[in-house]
Write a structure and sequence with these properties.
With 357 residues, this protein is an alpha/beta fold. Helix 6 packs antiparallel against helix 7. 39% of the residues are buried. Helices cover 68% and strands 6% of the residues. The longest helix has 58 residues. It is elongated, with a radius of gyration of 29 Å. It has a 5-stranded mixed β-sheet with strand order 2-1-3-4-5, sandwiched between helices. The protein contains 12 helices and 5 strands.
């Protein structure tokens, strides 16, 4: 007996509803990516960008106050007594530019902190020097490696490691769904190890993004990747097909935009600047910068951020384990209840048959 037109129409309508429901995810990704990236990057403007004017005399004080007033909140201008203090501030990321006035004015920057911040500062003080009728000499006291002239290679390394990590979550959640949670967690740890090795290879021998400190970079890449994978594996138990959207929200939309890899928080809206202080991408980017270029200054705080995200991953897996155990227990109880019901029904039928005989 062949199916009628009504049956075929119903089948098509059901398939269409199924497809449309799954299209919600990529459309939400589109909206989220647009809001995140354009919100964070479309109009970078400095606010409270710390710069120093070197000198203790009245002229230095007047210049600093003039720049502060003219900037209207864009700059935070201080005076420092001498060049050595200014260099120390740059190398500890307490400032992003130091201007030495005089007949041959000099601007010192730390390119490894942020190329975009250094560019903003250079634009400001080029105008200052031009107003004094002198060319500006720019000195980079913390240059990046030859393989990373813009200093943004670390950000793109973050992108590569992140994609390797959150894409693996989809595989472990889909193809690995039949495996026990402890096996999925072990696979997550192993995958993060491989992803971190790939990241270290990119940073060192392949592209030369760093010229030393590769071992520490690898360790931070592993911490970062393991945190993402464990959080993703844990979330999959609860979010199911929405896991991809969830990890993209956490580790792409909010993560890349707050990492400081392109624009530091002093050039971004406050929301993304506030995330920079504790999000894992910022922990990785700033941790690598600190380790490679700034002698480990403030490295402990960045490592703590990465470690806490790893702990969050372990907690997520633990919660998933409890939820799955509870689910299995519930299913076992239902199966036992069904078995008891079938046994009782069978016994009743046998009794009825016996009575009938």
């Amino acid at each position: 007996m062949s199916a009628g037109p009504g049956s075929a129409s119903g089948s098509t309508a059901g398939a269409l509803r199924h497809v449309l429901s799954h299209l919600v995810t990529p459309l939400l990704m589109c909206i989220g990516m647009g809001l995140a990236y354009l919100g964070a990057f479309h109009s970078p403007e400095p606010h409270d960008l710390r710069v120093d004017v070197v000198g203790s005399g009245a002229s230095a004080q007047v210049l600093a106050q003039t720049l502060q007033d003219k900037g209207d909140g864009a700059l935070s201008v201080r005076t420092v007594a001498d060049r050595d203090i200014a260099v120390n501030h740059l190398k500890t990321q307490q400032s992003y530019g130091a201007y030495v006035p005089g007949g041959s004015p000099e601007l010192m920057v730390a390119g490894a902190s942020s190329d975009t911040s250094a560019t903003v500062v250079q634009k400001v003080f080029t105008e200052v020097a031009a107003g004094q009728g002198a060319p500006l000499e720019v000195t980079d006291v913390a240059p990046t490696a030859d393989g990373d002239p813009t200093g943004q290679g670390i950000f793109f390394l973050l992108v590569a490691v992140s994609i390797g990590s959150y894409a693996s979550v989809a595989v472990l959640g889909g193809a690995g769904a039949v495996l026990a949670l402890r096996i999925r967690a072990a696979l997550a740890i192993g995958t993060s190890f491989v992803v971190s090795l790939i990241g270290a290879a990119f940073a060192g021998p392949v592209f030369g993004l760093v010229d030393h400190g590769l071992g520490g970079l690898w360790a931070m890449a592993w911490l970062y990747s393991a945190g993402i994978l464990l959080i993703g594996v844990g979330l999959h138990t609860f979010l199911k097909r929405w896991t991809t959207l969830g990890v993209m929200l956490l580790f792409v939309m909010l993560n890349f935009t707050s990492s400081g890899g392109i624009f530091r928080p002093e050039l971004q809206p406050g929301f993304f600047g506030s995330l920079h202080s504790f999000w894992n991408g910022a922990g990785f980017v700033e941790g690598v910068r600190s380790h490679v270029y700034f002698g480990g200054h403030a490295l402990g705080g960045h490592l703590l951020v990465l470690a806490l995200w790893l702990v969050a991953g372990l907690v997520a897996v633990g919660c998933a384990g409890l939820a799955e155990a509870k689910r299995r227990h519930g299913e076992a109880e239902k199966a036992r209840a069904a078995a008891v019901a079938r046994t009782a029904a069978g016994a009743e039928e046998e009794m009825e048959e016996a009575v009938g005989v």
